[in-house]
Amino acid sequence: MSDPGITWCTREAWFQEERGSRYPQRRLGQSSSAVAIAARASADARAAPTFRKVATEEGLCCSQLDFRSRSLVLLLLLFSLAPVAHTQTRFDFTPEIDRLLRDGLNRMYRYDLREADESFDDLVRRFPQHPIGHMHKAEVVWWRALRDNKNPKLEADFEQHTNIAISKGQALLKQNPKDFYALLYIAGAYGNRTRYNVYISKSYYRAMRAGIKGYDFVGPAHALRPNYVDSLIGMGAYNYFAGSLPAFIKVFSWMFTQGGDKTKGIEQLEMAAQKGEYGRTAAKMVLLGVYYNEKRLQDYDRLISGLIEEFPSNPVFVTWLADSHVRKGNLDRGREQLTVLLDKANGTSHSKLSLAQIHYELGRLMLEKRSVDDAVASSTRVIESELPAGDPLHAKALLLRGCAYDLKGRRQQAVADYQAVLEQRDTDDCQRKARGFLKQPYQGRTKS
Questions:
Q1: Model pTM?
Q2: 63, 398, 434, 440: least CB-packed within 10 angstroms?
Q3: Which domains, and CATH codes, for the chain?
């Protein structure tokens, strides 16, 4: 698990995957059914009545890849807008359902994933024919997989919930092609698939295809209700991404239903971050990748610090903060911020997971600074913390401490930690790295 940026794969990898399945309807100039809906909806939207602007948030975005360039593909991850509808008679969203969905999203962003999953289970029970519950349950799986990316059961669970969500949404569209919320929740399911392919499966071509497919649904939804602020998350992400394609990727421009506008995309995302009713956090997470890619580092620091302040128990946000400082080489500033977070956490009823994550990230920065004693101390605190047995952070902390011991010249202790990594559940290629360091001592920087 690491920052919210994304690496473009090599030209050869793109062309290799390009030989696989395509979108022949775009190659031949034909329109998909969802794109056809957009054409009809554009005219209808001008005469449509005003709808209340209500939408939910999505969490986006982690991978051990190059931070600077990863931020482009990140912007394909945003089509999971999944709004709540108070006036949607088909689904009967009562104030109680609104509260349930809000609670589920807040729990998810706090990283209370079990409680969030229970909230979304309730949505599945109340709306068995609607994609809302399964789409969000897939999102919860994605958050789990960020810290446990070698777990095949998580991948199976994710695909199951995603397929169900898409199937249920498509069934609703057969009944009513202009079902606004069915369009958005299908887009959300494809957005989830995009992020999973990027961060967990590391299949960037499939991630791009899923993201573009998501636009086939969020585009028509936006055409139906163009004043719906939270839908600007998906629209802004597409505009920025399509307007920021590297030159060698432009050979795949036939895949895009329309061109992009980078400036407009940023404006749309910032609007959603400021004025979105349910999508503010989602928009901010997307903007993290945008700001880093645009080298707006002060804006990046402001956003990630705000997310940590709002959701201090989420370990992912702490990791993104540390990653940005490691990649910028701003280790002293990173240590300062993490120390402040640690002081706050020690003075409150902070979650054990987030507290351990702060210690780990502080140790990682200290290893980069070659402050090996501090790195050993921080990683030892993680190893000795009361995390659940088999928590992936144990393996990462053992690998980190082994690297620090190697730099101290304490090879025997380093070997013991590397061997212990092989007995833990693998995540972030810790076992592969440990095997490498068993053959040759750690001598410098690695993505621990």
A1: 0.78
A2: 440
A3: 11-294 (no CATH), 315-439 (1.25.40.10)
